[in-house]
Design a protein that fits this description.
By secondary structure, the protein is mostly helical.
């Protein structure tokens, strides 16, 4: 509601807490839905903002909802890991909002601790639990130590709405520990009921909101109707609204069309629904809301109201899809008009967050009633709305790169972007409640998972893959069991297709070797699990016959990714196995049909690498040209080059020339590969990360290793001569005397040799940081690397 009355005692206390102490305070506002908790926090923020000496930060915990069993005792490894990721995400967002300067050091700390933990194994590992707790504590301490600095020691008001969404689980306990340690800060949380108590919660200032009094309702009516309403009507309106501000605002909207000077008690009773005038309590309260809203809105808008009840938040495109689908023009409701009308009636409100602007939600005191009505009386509609929402969010996740103008390299950062993460959680939640074909759900999850593994996780352990598996097991299966599916703990769980998919992907993740040297692995078993994924995702022709055009594109992309990994399972076990060629050819056909030039460029690189491994130098040369051609076509005039791929292609060309005994040209190309790997570290949209450090290590190691081979073939003196040639081609290395260089070559000390030959990569504390000594060095040396368009042109014409 736009007007605010009452709560003066609570507001005065909040302002005193904000201004009184240098230590942090927490004001815990408890009250049922509709009692005005969100309005209270907004009014508090308005009053604090008038002083102009405070920062105001608004957070909505519904975005961090973790579907699954309620908190009960000792958390599992998966819960601790998930909490570490979610709290890090929240702290990074808060740091960015409050910081007067960029919080690079804190972002670095979060990334460092994630890498330190690596791949979380299965539950039951007490050592891993301790490691996660240590990382959590380390990140928390850096966050808390910097909080006052980021805010320039100003007072900070942090309002946390929908705290009950996380209160009784590990993230809620984390907030209870951290909130009171935020210096100069008042944290105001809002929720419906008290949580399981801990010593941290006991130090909060808990205040329960009561319904408005009859006099406060009368005051509201006087302000709204400018004292034109008969005071006697306040008694009836007070009874009908129960003193709940949320209900009061709807009642007022119902009668605002009547001339307040002529409204009588009898006319008021005629206007208000009968059930609203009866005493409150019991299951009939749900129908009261339905009656009131049905009376308040045009009948054509009721479907829009029910659609709003199903989703956490929505914008115009999502509401359009819920009402009829993105391509369905049969709906009589225009989404933008519906949003304006429902907002003006006080049925929906705009979400107050910096990250998800122009999004709305149904008031929480209305949602539970409508949701229960949908589930009990219109279950097919309820499930179909969830299906539409799930489809919308998956489309958003899939189209992120195009919609956000992401380059091939920077698109990888979507996995850590707060909006992408929030929408991924929404997809999981709606998927678990949706109707329709679960096979396409499994296919979509497999597509998200394998795409992340293809672009990142197959080279360096990627925590996002593990997080996806945890979310799949927790969110989808738990909510699926709530909706009548197979419970994860039931006897049939082991044979449930969704559990089987989880087990197959988990096996792949646990056993697929990362890095550029693919160590011994159970490749036959990995292939078998990939085939299980293929089967469970419905990639056979019979299952695909009923797929929509959109779904068929998703299935084709998944098929392409599966064929890539199936090719890996053959080539890394036996490079001569021609089954790898079959899988690669099918993957190329899939991505060619999708006009996916970026993936095609990478596939032709992989097949060039395989041809080289087999000794087919002419074929490797042809494949390098093809890869460069697709890369050039993809980039066009954007100049947004994939430096990693260019580096890989020069490395292939270097090795082909090495095999042809053209040492000078081979070492020249090796240095070009190193140069483009070095260029990977920075771009306008990114900073160095550990993946690029590993890639740079690979390219410098491959080059240094060739000099060691020259020692074996022609002696140390000849190798020393070629080493000087490498340093001439790639300046910026270290400085040591001649005897030490000869010792490094003779002893095959690749670590020292790399440090002498090439510019250094970033130190761990220089990763994910813009301003550093490494950045200064990189800026000076990067100019020596040939322009990428010239480099690609030389590869195309090879």
């Amino acid at each position: 509601m736009s007007l605010f009355v009452g709560r003066e005692k609570e507001l005065d206390e909040a302002v005193r807490l904000l201004l009184a102490s240098e230590m942090g305070s927490v004001l815990d506002i408890v009250g049922a839905s509709g009692l005005g908790k969100t309005s209270f926090m907004r009014e508090l923020a308005r009053r604090v903002d008038v002083a102009g000496l405070q920062d105001i930060v608004v957070e909505d915990m519904s975005r961090f909802l973790r579907e699954g069993p309620e908190f009960s005792g000792e958390p599992s490894t998966g819960v601790l890991w998930d909490t570490f990721l979610r709290t890090s995400e929240l702290m990074l967002q808060l740091a960015e909002r409050i910081a007067r300067q960029k919080s690079d050091s804190f972002r670095l700390k979060c990334a460092s601790e994630r890498r330190k933990l690596g791949r979380p194994p299965t539950d039951g590992d007490d050592r891993l639990k301790m490691a996660i707790r240590r990382s959590q504590l380390a990140v928390d301490n850096v966050f808390l130590d910097n909080w006052a600095h980021w805010s320039d020691n100003r007072r900070v008001l942090l309002t946390v709405d929908f705290f009950d969404k996380i209160a009784d689980e590990e993230m809620g306990l984390w907030l209870a520990r951290v909130a009171r340690r935020l210096k100069n800060t008042l944290v105001v949380v809002a929720r419906e009921s008290l949580p399981n108590q801990t010593s941290d919660f006991s130090r909060w200032h808990v205040r329960s909101l009561s319904p408005l009094s009859r006099d406060e309702v009368a005051c509201y009516l006087d302000e709204f109707f400018h004292e034109l309403l008969d005071p006697v009507l306040a008694d009836e309106i007070y009874r009908s609204s129960w003193g709940y501000p949320g209900v009061l605002s709807l009642v007022v909207e119902k009668i605002r069309g009547v001339d307040p000077r002529t409204l009588t008690p009898a006319e008021l009773q005629r206007i208000l629904p009968e059930r609203l005038q009866a005493p409150s309590g019991g299951s009939s309260d749900d129908l009261r809301f339905v009656d009131l809203i049905a009376d308040l809105v045009d009948p054509s808008l009721l479907d829009a109201v029910y659609a709003c009840a199903v989703v956490s938040t929505f914008d115009e495109p999502l509401l359009a899809e819920l009402l009829g689908g993105a391509e369905n023009e049969s709906s009589e409701v225009e989404p933008a008009s519906a949003i304006r009308t429902l907002e003006s009636l006080g049925i929906i409100e705009q979400v107050a967050t910096d990250q998800l602007s122009r999004r709305f939600r149904l008031h929480e005191f209305i949602r539970p009633a409508l949701t229960r009505i949908l589930q009990e009386l219109r279950p097919e509609t309820w499930r179909d709305l969830h299906r539409r929402a799930a489809q919308h969010y998956f489309r958003f996740l899939s189209d992120w790169d195009d919609d956000n103008s992401a380059s091939p390299v920077t698109s990888l950062y979507k996995y850590e972007h707060p909006v992408w993460l929030a929408y991924k959680r929404e997809w999981f939640m709606h998927t678990g409640r949706a109707s329709g074909d679960r096979v396409i759900v499994r296919a979509r999850f497999s597509l998200l998972f394998l795409e992340a593994h293809w672009w990142y996780g197959n080279y360096e352990p990627f925590y996002v893959n593990r997080q996806m598996l945890d979310e799949w097991e927790r969110d989808w299966q738990w909510t699926g069991s709530e909706a009548g599916g197979v419970a994860a703990s039931s006897d049939a769980a082991q044979d449930d297709p969704d559990n089987r998919l989880h087990a197959a992907l988990e096996f792949i993740l646990d056993h697929y070797p990362t890095g550029w040297v693919k160590a011994s692995a159970p490749w036959d078993d990995i292939r078998d699990e990939l085939l299980v994924v293929r089967d469970l995702s419905g990639l056979d022709q019979a299952a695909r016959a009923s797929a929509t055009t959109e779904e068929e594109k998703e299935l084709k992309k998944l098929d392409g990714l599966l064929n890539i990994f199936l090719a890996h399972s053959r080539r890394y076990l036996d490079p001569t196995d021609r089954n790898a060629d079959t899988y690669y050819d099918q993957a190329i056909a899939d991505f060619a049909e999708l006009d996916d030039e970026w993936n095609l460029a990478w596939l032709y690189f992989e097949t060039a690498d395989l041809a080289l491994e087999r000794g087919s130098l002419a074929e490797a040369r042809t494949r390098v040209r093809d890869s460069a051609e697709y890369l050039k076509s993809y980039v066009g005039d954007s100049e947004d080059w994939d430096e990693e791929l260019i580096s890989d292609l020069f490395r292939i060309r270097a090795e082909v020339r090495w095999e042809a005994d053209d040492v000078n040209e081979a070492l020249t190309d090796y240095c070009r590969a190193v140069g483009h790997a070095y260029r990977c570290f920075f771009s306008p949209d990114k900073t160095p990360d550990h993946y690029e450090s590993l890639f740079y290590e690979e390219m410098t190691t491959r080059t240094a290793n060739r000099l060691v081979e020259i020692v074996d073939l022609a002696g140390v003196t000849e190798a020393r001569r070629w080493a000087d040639r490498v340093r001439e081609l790639m300046p910026g290395g270290g400085s040591v005397d001649d005897d030490e260089v000869r010792d490094m070559l003779r002893d095959a000390d690749l670590v020292k040799l790399r440090a002498w030959l090439f510019p250094r990569g970033p130190a761990p504390d220089e990763e994910q940081v813009v301003e550093s000594a490494f950045f200064d060095e990189w800026t000076a040396l990067n100019e020596n690397t040939p322009l990428s368009d010239t480099a690609v042109e030389s590869l195309r014409r090879w």
